């Protein structure tokens, strides 16, 4: 088998590697390389330095933005971890026909344009939006709340809603993989529903939840569109900072250096999640 | 059920009381009757096997006892108490599942400890009992492994230890050996039997394999299309089947029918069959119609001049299969077929194909059974 894989498909393997290197690694590397070039008098100088990174780490407003973004991504991940788990558990407990319908309903937004979803959220959160109408109708508030839009809370809500499928789907997959007999065995051995959940269902589905949290964190920490469109001045995030260097300031090297930082964080989160989501028993 | 055999030997050892008393238990899935209302007593401390082909309702019966399936009729009493409303996790017995259903995220030790953990047994007691249980199933050295790192037999033994840890009085086993290879299966059969004897726990064991049932059981309950066909000791079912189905299931492949009773004596019955008149020993049958005569292939003896039942045949084929030789015979007059199984012996000549051979069998070696038409 191994022999055949090594010798029989050499051309195929080369093509695959070439595609990966040419279309993914080379553009990424060349882009990241900008981070090591200084800008003098609005022109890029091709002499590698670490100036951009020194600049980033010594600038307190960059640091604050970075920390604010990490906290935001963390908050969204934790919130969605709870909400997503509850949603997935609810779906899993439905009869099979319902379960499939709900999973599809949940996956539909993934096929929609990201911008449309954010604008939809803007409609929901606005002064005349759905949320305010609901709050008024139920008498929770007397007049529309304007604090729901153009601040960090709006970003938190929008990202939570938009990224929820990324949390729910991996948990659904993990729950789906639990053999019904295993749950019967737990009941047979005397476990109550709560004990079965605590000692069997939760540990068996946790790897899926960790993958979901990883997706949420990485996507939330790098996002710039949602903060841009619903965040206002308060919701200035690291993603917007990167975006501004490319789109507004035309300082590509600084933008690239900021991206490197974001990528390092993403890779660190992914590697931690990978370790946590592959427990020893899964071999 | 009007069995031709009056011998009701299936009530073994009269002083033993039923641990599980099943009365009129039925399970219906919409139009399909998985279990037709049936009665069954499981005696305290016995190894009872529920045997039947797939679709006979044996697994449904076990799942209903365990509580995974709601009965649509009847009662199940455990130790004199109706357990219909007792939820699965409060039923006083445990199950060994067909595919073991071990907790994949727990080690062998943690799997075995599960039943004690949910009962809030203190750690020290728990550990000691887990070690004991691991000792019984000979898994002391593998306690820290995960199920994925175990062989089928080891998983099987973990499942057994896990079911035994809470010292239930009854363990239900759902085809627990089906996934094992033949050698391991035989080992595990012996092992199960030994564990059951030593622990004194009542076992209700489901299988479709008649030789397995014979090896392990005190009693066997044969099921067919949702009903109990016959209950008895392995010897009963082997030598005194009451229906053609049970006879064939236990390998009595010579079914002589149609049969007609010619005369009955106190302990013998003369039966007219396509092979001539045959003498059958044993009490006379209760019914006289729709009978067949079952004769085990190994009961046939070649050239047995002194046997009371003799049939003149022609040898159709001879196959040597090692310790045994199987000879296909055809009745000289009616062309009906018989199978004879003899112990292979290097010093005697094999029958020659095409030659005539008189075979005989003892009057005690055959059984009158319910025929195909019921």
Short description:
The complex is a heterodimer of chains A (283) and B (374). Chain A is mainly α and 283 residues long.
What does this structure look like?
The complex is a heterodimer of chains A (283) and B (374). Chain A is mainly α. Helices cover 74% and strands 1% of the residues of chain A. Chain A has 13 helices and two strands. The longest helix of chain A has 33 residues, at 60-92. Chain B has two domains: 18-245, P-loop containing nucleotide triphosphate hydrolases (Rossmann fold, 3-Layer(aba) Sandwich); 246-370, OB fold (Dihydrolipoamide Acetyltransferase, E2P), CATH 2.40.50.140. Chain B has eight helices and 21 strands. Chain B has helices at 58-66, 108-118, 123-136, 152-164, 182-199, 210-216, 234-239, 244-249; strands at 18-29, 32-43, 47-51, 73-78, 81-82, 93-96, 170-174, 202-207, 219-224, 227-232, 254-256, 260-264, 268-273, 276-281, 291-295, 301-302, 309-320, 324-331, 337-343, 356-361, 366-370. Chain B has a six-stranded mixed beta sheet with strand order 6-7-8-3-9-10, with helices on both faces. In chain B, strands 16-20-17-18-19 form a five-stranded antiparallel beta sheet, with no helix packed on it. At the A-B interface, helix 9 and helix 10 of A face helix 2 of B.
């Amino acid at each position: 088998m191994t022999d055949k894989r090594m010798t029989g498909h050499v051309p195929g393997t080369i093509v695959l590697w070439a595609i990966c290197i040419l279309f993914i690694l080379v553009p990424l590397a060349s882009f990241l390389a900008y981070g090591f070039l200084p800008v003098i008098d609005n022109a890029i100088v091709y002499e590698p330095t670490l100036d951009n990174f020194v600049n980033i780490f010594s600038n307190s407003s960059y640091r604050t933005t970075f920390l604010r973004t990490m906290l935001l991504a963390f908050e969204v991940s934790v919130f969605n971890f709870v909400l997503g788990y509850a949603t997935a558990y609810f779906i899993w407990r439905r009869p099979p026909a319902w379960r499939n319908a709900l999973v599809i309903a949940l996956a539909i937004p993934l096929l929609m344009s990201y911008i449309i979803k954010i604008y939809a959220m803007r409609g929901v959160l606005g002064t005349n939006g759905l949320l305010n109408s609901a709050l008024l109708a139920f008498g929770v508030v007397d007049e529309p709340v304007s604090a729901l839009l153009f601040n960090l809370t709006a970003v938190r809500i929008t990202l939570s809603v938009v990224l929820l499928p990324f949390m729910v789907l991996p948990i659904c997959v993990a729950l789906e993989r639990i053999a019904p007999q295993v749950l019967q065995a737990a009941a047979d051995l005397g476990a109550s529903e709560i004990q079965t959940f605590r000692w069997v269902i939760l540990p068996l589905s946790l790897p899926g939840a960790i993958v979901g949290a990883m997706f949420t964190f990485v996507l939330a920490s790098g996002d710039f569109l949602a903060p841009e469109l619903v965040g206002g001045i308060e919701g200035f995030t690291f993603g917007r900072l990167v975006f501004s260097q490319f789109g507004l300031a035309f300082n590509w090297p600084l933008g690239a250096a900021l991206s490197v930082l974001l990528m390092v964080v993403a890779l660190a989160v992914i590697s931690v999640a990978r370790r946590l989501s592959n427990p020893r028993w899964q071999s | 059920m009007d069995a031709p055999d009056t011998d009701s030997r299936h009530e073994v050892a009269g002083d033993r009381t039923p641990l599980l008393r099943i009365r009129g238990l039925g399970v219906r899935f919409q139009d399909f009757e998985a279990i037709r209302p049936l009665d069954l007593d499981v005696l305290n401390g016995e190894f009872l096997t529920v045997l039947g082909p797939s679709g006979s309702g044996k697994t449904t019966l076990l799942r209903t006892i365990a509580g995974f399936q709601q009965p649509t009729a009847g009662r199940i009493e455990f130790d004199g108490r109706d357990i219909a409303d007792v939820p699965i996790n409060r039923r006083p017995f445990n199950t060994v599942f067909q595919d073991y259903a071990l907790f994949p995220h727990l080690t062998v030790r943690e799997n075995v400890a599960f039943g004690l953990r949910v009962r809030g047994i203190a750690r020290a007691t728990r550990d000691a009992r887990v070690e004991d249980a691991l000792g019984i199933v000979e898994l002391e050295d593998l306690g820290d492994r995960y199920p994925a790192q175990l062989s089928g037999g080891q998983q099987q033994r973990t499942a057994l230890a896990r079911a035994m840890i809470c010292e239930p009085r009854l363990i239900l086993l759902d085809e627990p050996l089906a996934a094992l290879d033949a050698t391991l299966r035989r080992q595990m059969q012996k092992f199960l039997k030994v564990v059951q004897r030593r622990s004194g726990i009542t076992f209700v064991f489901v299988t479709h394999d008649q030789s397995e049932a014979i090896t392990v059981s005190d009693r066997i309950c044969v099921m067919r299309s949702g009903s109990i066909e016959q209950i008895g000791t392995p010897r009963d079912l082997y030598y005194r089947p009451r229906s053609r189905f049970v006879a064939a299931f236990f390998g009595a492949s010579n079914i002589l029918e149609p049969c007609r009773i010619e005369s009955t004596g106190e302990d013998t019955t003369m039966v007219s069959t396509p092979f001539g008149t045959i003498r059958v020993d044993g009490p006379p049958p209760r019914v006289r119609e729709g009978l067949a005569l079952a004769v085990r292939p190994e009961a046939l003896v070649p050239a047995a001049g002194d046997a009371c039942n003799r049939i003149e045949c022609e040898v159709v084929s001879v196959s040597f299969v090692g310790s045994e030789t199987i000879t296909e015979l055809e009745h000289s007059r009616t062309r009906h077929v018989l199978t004879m199984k003899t112990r292979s012996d290097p010093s005697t000549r094999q029958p020659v194909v095409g030659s005539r051979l008189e075979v005989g069998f003892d009057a005690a070696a055959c059984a009158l059974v319910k025929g195909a038409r019921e």
